[in-house]
Every structure is written in C-alpha cells, then in structure tokens.
Amino acid sequence: MHDVVIVGAGPVGLFLACELGLAGCSVLVLEREPEPGAPWRTAPLGRRGLFAASVAAFHRRGLLEPLLAEAGPAFGAAEDDDPARPRFAGHFAGIMLDGADVDLAALPLRLPGSVPDAVMTSLDTVEAVLSERAAKLGVEIRRGVAVDGLTQDDERVVVRAGAREYPARWAVGCDGGRSAVRRLAGFEFAGTEPQFTGYVALATIPDVEKLNPGFTPTPRGVYLRMAADGHIGVMDFDGGAFDRSQEVTREHLQEVLRRVSGTDVTLTEVHLASSYTDRAMQATTYRRGRVLLAGDAAHIVSPLGGQGLNTGIGDAVNLGWKLAATLRGQAPDGLLDTYTRERHPVGAWALGWTRAQVAAMRPDPHAQAVQGVLRDLLRTRNGTTYVFEKLSGMSARHDLGDDRPLVGRVAPDFRPADGTTLADLMRDGRGVVLDFSADHHLRASAAAWESELRYAAGTAENDLGLGAVLVRPDGVVAWAGEHVPDRGSFERAARRWFGDASV
Ligand SMILES: Cc1cc2nc3c(=O)[nH]c(=O)nc-3n(C[C@H](O)[C@H](O)[C@H](O)COP(=O)(O)OP(=O)(O)OC[C@H]3O[C@@H](n4cnc5c(N)ncnc54)[C@H](O)[C@@H]3O)c2cc1C
C-alpha cells in the first residue's frame, strides 16, 4: 500500500509526485500511455509557455536549469538595453504584448532576478525533466495502466485498472480534462459550454504566404500562423459542434481554414492535427474524502492566454506539502482543506480570463468593437503592465487574513547578502524564514520548527522594507514582519501552517 497513488503522468501529476517524493512519501504514478513523448506533446504542437509563478516553482526545486537547457526559442518579442526588463510576449485575445511596455515601477513587489519571467518549453521536456527527478526521489511510475475504477472508505482508496488493484492512503487525479478519477469519485464539474472548436496542426502549406503571421481575426473566426513551418491554428465559432472523437482530416481542416481565413490556401498534407474547445469547467471542490484533483482534472480552459498548465503546476505545488504533512500526521487542523480554499479561486480566475478573451474574439460586430478597445488599451503601458502581471501568476493572492500586500502571494526571489537566493534555500522542500533584522530576532523562535523551516539571517539586496518573511514550502508568503519582527506574531503564523513546534 502506497501513501499516494497519482493517476496521470502529465506535468501536473509528475510535479506533484516530485513534491511528495521530496517529502519522503511513497508514491505510485499510474499512466495510461505506454510510452512518453507522444508527437503532439513534443514541439511545436506540444510547445507550452510557463509564466513567472511556474518558473519560480521549478527554480525553487533546482529544476529550472534542465528545463532551460531544452527550452524553445526565447520567450519575448521585444528587447531593449535594460537587462532587468522582462523579455516577454504573451497575448490577450490574440493581441500581442510588448515586454518593453511593462512598467516595472508599477510592480514594486517584483524583484528582477537571474531567471526569466517566462520560459517557452514543451510538454515532453517538462515530463522528461520531472520523470528523471521523480525516479531519483524513489517515485514509481507504471505506464500502460488505464485507471477505470476507484472506491474509498475512511482508511484508504483503492484505484483499479482492469483486474489490478492499487491501494493507497490517498489518491490524486491528475488525469487531464476528461479525468476518470473525477467521474469515478463523483466530483461535480460545472461551467460553460463551448463557443468554438479550435484546431492546431502541422501541415505542408505551399502557399503559406496567403496567411498572415500571428493571430488574425476575421469576420468568420480567428486563424493563427506560428513561427514554425506549417504550424497553424484555427478557431471556428461553430458552438463546439465538431465531433472531437473524429479524426481531423486534411479536407476538413482545409475547408475550415479557407472559410475562416477567407483565402484559398492549400494544405497538401496534414502531419499532425488535434482539436480542442473553449469549454470552461471546474470541479466544485478539489477534494472528496481521500481523493483529490489537480491540473486539468480539476479545471479546463481554452488554451487562450496559456493558463491551463500554469494553473495546474500551481495546484501541484500547493497540494504537495500539505498532503505530505497530513500523511506524516503533523498537519495542523484543516490544512488539507486550504488546498481547495486557495486553489479553487485561482482556477475560477483562469476560467474567467479565457472566457473574456473568447468574448472579445467572437466574429460579430460587438465583439470586434470590444477587440478594438482592447487593442487601444494594450498599446498603453498601464494596459500592458496589467496583463503582464495577471499572466505571470505573481499577482494571484490567497486571502490569508493579513492585509500586508506580500502575504498570500508567491514570494519574490529575495537575495540574501551572502550570495544565495530564496530559491536556493528552498531546494529541500522545507519552508524558509528570512530574518533581515539587525539582531536576528527570530533565530530562537524559528529553531523550534527546525524540521519544517529553514532559518536564514542577514541583510538582503532588497528586503522590500520588511524585517522578516515566513515562506511556506510552496513559495507563498505566509507572514511578514516589521523591522523588529514580532516573535509572538511569527510563532502564531508558524503554528498555523506547521503545527506545534517539533523541538
Ligand atoms: C493547443 C494547446 C496549447 C496550450 N498552451 C498552453 C500554454 O502555453 N500554457 C499553459 O499553461 N497551458 C497550455 N495549454 C494547456 C495545457 O497543455 C494543459 O493545461 C496541461 O497539459 C494540463 O496538464 P495535466 O498534467 O493536468 O494534464 P495532461 O497534460 O492532460 O496529462 C494527463 C495525463 O493523464 C493520463 N491519463 C488520462 N486518463 C488516464 C487514466 N484513466 N489512467 C491513467 N492515466 C490517464 C494522460 O495520458 C496524460 O498523460 C495548452 C493546451 C492546448 C490544447
């Protein structure tokens, strides 16, 4: 019997497996696909953008280097002379952002660091990096196992695949948008039905110059010609009518592309094609008994604005340490329930973010008028900065009952004067106390939570005017103190997240 069975070895399941493995839990991952690296998970179709909060999550565990080694083309359209400026290009409703227009002065909680604000990678790269790490941490990954049954009682969960049974104390469904775990465990999944069918494909297109580069809205939909040869996308506002169990044929794709683009462009061959929709749905809770959901199993959004994977990584990071503490019997009361409480609003935001884009991309005069207003707004520094901050994930804030602006957000990568960074201090998966106070005021208090918290004292390159911060293992600031930090207030925060002192 394992501590945790994770269903799905996608990026979210594997990230969670690494977090649990790091915390010493026994983890079994069950994956339906017999082999990794399916063609649509490799670049260019499998290309995915990771934004700042996810980049920080990989960085904290020392996983950013291998990811960058395999990264795709630099993420960012604009460069200027300022190395602290984000080289960044996301989009909103197909309107590209220019990193040079981000007003850094308006982001006082962002500390420019050595890591990029966004990384262009691919699903297979993320999965390879995480699988290797998981194996080193003793996680067992079994492939070719399609889960089709699940029962639970007060003591355990039994996950089934055909006649095989996999008992565990907890199970987590990371098995994607059509999650079997979600269905088998009786989660409610609620949201909105699609307005369009989207297609992504790799094709041979001899007259590709008939298509504009980038996103092109037309009176009939939107098409997209990406940088890689033959990599195209189309959004056909058919109300999601295309039967997605069908193969996307060359004839069908050419007909849709011609109709939407208003050209007579020719696809002589389609090498790879898949379809998606903008159905936006979310599980009403992420936990039922001993079964939890994370990633696309918990929420599905259209790919617009690249939030699906980023939201899923955030789920895994948030859940890992809480589930591990629960398994060790060290979790303070209700810790695991903060997973839904904190992550459900973030998922709901992602649904809204993509719905807003769909509303602005519809091929009707009202939506096109909204699109015009958005274009104007995104030509302003304020508009670009607003979207940049939202996309980055760094502005998402859990309500932890403390008004200080940093509390509840992902911590910026503080740089203690000894040359380390906060991320360096977080590799072992413990929380961190950064004590910037002159007399190392919290040293004795923090020592009482030594097995859960790493203590680091000293000045920092920029302490954002704070005397100390308590950072949870998921990188979220749980507490912040003044120049002479209040020990009682720190100890209450430490007890709230880590339980009674262990020494
Ligand atoms: C065209 C496109 C572009 C996108 N671009 C971005 C982007 O730039 N940024 C971004 O953040 N997101 C993007 N997304 C969304 C992103 O790909 C998903 O949100 C992400 O892959 C979800 O990860 P996951 O691990 O939750 O699920 P998946 O990646 O779906 O992995 C689930 C795993 O579970 C396995 N599985 C399923 N059922 C079972 C079963 N019954 N038993 C065992 N195993 C099972 C599957 O084989 C799979 O390996 C994009 C999506 C699309 C379609």
TrEMBL record:
InterPro entries: FAD-bd (IPR002938), FAD/NAD-bd_sf (IPR036188), RIFMO-like (IPR050641). It holds the Pfam family FAD_binding_3. Keywords: FAD, Flavoprotein. GO terms for molecular function: FAD binding; oxidoreductase activity, acting on paired donors, with incorporation or reduction of molecular oxygen, NAD(P)H as one donor, and incorporation of one atom of oxygen. Residues 3-349 form the FAD-binding domain. It comes from the Bacteria. The keyword Flavoprotein applies. SUPFAM superfamilies: FAD/NAD(P)-binding domain (SSF51905). Its cofactor is FAD. This is Oxygenase.
